[in-house]
Amino acid sequence: MTAERANPSGELRNAQDVEANVRQHQEHDAASNSKFGFIVFLLSESVIFLSFFTGYIVYKTTTLDWYPPGVTGLETRDPFINTLVLVSSSFVIYVAERYLHDKKLWGFRLFLLITMAMGSYFLFGQAVEWRSLPFSYQSGLFGGTFFLLTGFHGLHVLTGILLQTLMLGRSFIPGNYDNGYFGVEATSLFWHFVDVIWIVLYTLIYVWQ
Amino acid sequence: MTNISLEAPEAVRGQPYPGAPDNWKRFFTFSTDHKVIGIQYIVTSFFFFLIGGTLSMIMRGELITPDADLVDRTVYNALFTMHGSIMLFMWTFPVLVGLGNYLVPLMIGARDMAFPRLNAVSFWMVPVVGILMLASFLVPGGPSQSGWWAYPPVSLQNPTGNLLNGQVLWILAVAISGVSSIMGGVNFVTTIFKMRAPGMTWFRTPAFVWSVLGAQLIQLYGLPALTGGAVMLLLDITIGTSFFAPERGGNPILYQHFFWFYSHPAVYVMVLPAFGIFSEVLPVHARKPLFGYRVIAASSILITVVSGAVWVHHMFASATPGWMRILFMVTSMLVAIPSGIKVFGWVATIWGGKIRFTTPMLFALGGISNWLFAGITGIFLASVPIDIHVNNTYFVVGHFHYVLYGAIVMGIYAAIYHWFPKMTGRMYYEGLGKLHFALTYLGTALTFLPMHPAGLMGMPRRVASYDLEFAYWNVLASIGGFLLGLSTLPFILNMVSAWIRGEKVGNNPWRAYGLEWLTSSPPTVENFEETPVVVSGPYGYGRNQPLVGNIPNPGLTQFPESLTQQQTS
Q: Residue B265 burial (CB < 10 Å; 0-12/13-18/19+)?
């Protein structure tokens, strides 16, 4: 009977096709939608950073006295160590995700904790750097853009750590990650995103002096 | 028989919106049903449309005489700022999101949007934005006076010295509106990409869905740029950074780039869904397939892409280098190609059709004619020499109001009338609808046409008083403005009375061809009792082909004989 319903001129050739197609549609799981939506969100979010980066480039290339009086440039050694820590934490959270994939919760928790520690180290390092700087966000366009970019990125790192804390906490609810773990995937994607943004940011602010 | 249906649970079938009160009260709840949210959006935004319209009529009242005698200049500044902001952020964006919310899942055969709770949160931010905007009338110093574009250094001034001032409230409102729109964009794009019914390939997806996709993609790539600019502006005002403050070395032109990078494409966020509405309404009421459907669908995406590269035409007079002017003049004019494709497609659609001059059809035809006019003055404005001449005159005001009121608001009205029977199960009153159309069309022409000659003669915009030589055109425009205000009365009367006791007309009163007409009116909680399996394209008028493989289409077989005949070869 179903065969009569399917239109042979359409894409769906016969009853089996129709049935398979409907089943597939039915099984559009929420996680697949969520992952797609989250990636779209991150792409959109990256435009905010893009506008800040554009501002930085425009200001730097058009301003005569770029650095505030008494400042010749930025110290790069400590921020470089910070960068190494943050970028490698991307690999650590990937390992954590693999452990979860293999249903090894202890490994997941351990590597997630290491990621959180590395992220916190990064934030701590940034706080130390901020305190040591001889200029403020009111020190011309350089001061403004420096604190805007690093501050907005730092806010994202903090958000990432909070998400990781949440995911760690949820791993103690029995059976929570048995049927998919979109939250962890999203946290991990977010963390990679934050890392990529930092690499661009570091290049713009610290390398291009 | 193989059971392939995805039926709604027995308990809820046929009963609209279970779990929520089955009456008007459901529209005041935190519902996650896209249909309830859609109507919440539409009704809320219409409320703000009336507020924005009232502000504009105070302005037209001021401008009916050359002197500033009704309100003083600061109040006038606040009026046009809030009029523009409310009309864009509180009316046009939300009402189109509401229509998209209601229609897109129905049109693609989905049960709901991809993220229903996110959808509800997106909606409930809209009243918050409205309250923030309106609250700015109550703070010392009154609302922002820097126009809806909030250009620095004007927007950086803070005469009252208060941290909580109209400008800060304005930025917060726009930021929340932006967050709501980005969440909406993620939701729409995911829904359209991932939730289409089986068999609904891209080129079987209705033109309205294509246009919503294009519009929402613009939101996703454009809005964050404005958000970035708004954050920097807020920091300049509140904590004393110097991004856009020229006296502290900042660059106010950069703000214009951020602003227009979003706010020009934002026009297409509004006009693309209106195009989609025209593309849906014309085939139904002319009983013909949409001419050049694939090209019309693709042109929506082309506009989405090109519109990202035209923003500098708002800045021809802002010390923009010559090469940049030429470049952006060319890209701006390129938009005329996909827009023109659509207009020709619509004309060819109604050509030789059996046209029924119903209210939605009248609004669609009126909207298209206005769009044609607005598009042509748009080409004028895209050319650098003419733009330099008419920059910041009423010519510009006339042009964009022809786009916004003439084309977009007309499109919105067309959509509301066209899908009213689907949303309520009842028919609106045709006589009141036609009266509404006549008043709107005349009012639009009388209000916004005179602005063009006034502008060409040199009348500047954003002024509360003007030279005597412009008085004639301004009197005409003011009369037209009051006519437009009057035109909303038959609309409100029609909608309220028809919803309460209009004639019950069944599921498909237009005998229309489209998934949304295959379900009950109003649709049940999960839209379709069986997930439709689409087997043909969306505009099969006169082709006698089924739209879906598993649900009979009673609407098409019940056509009056005169309407089912093949219209053209």
A: buried
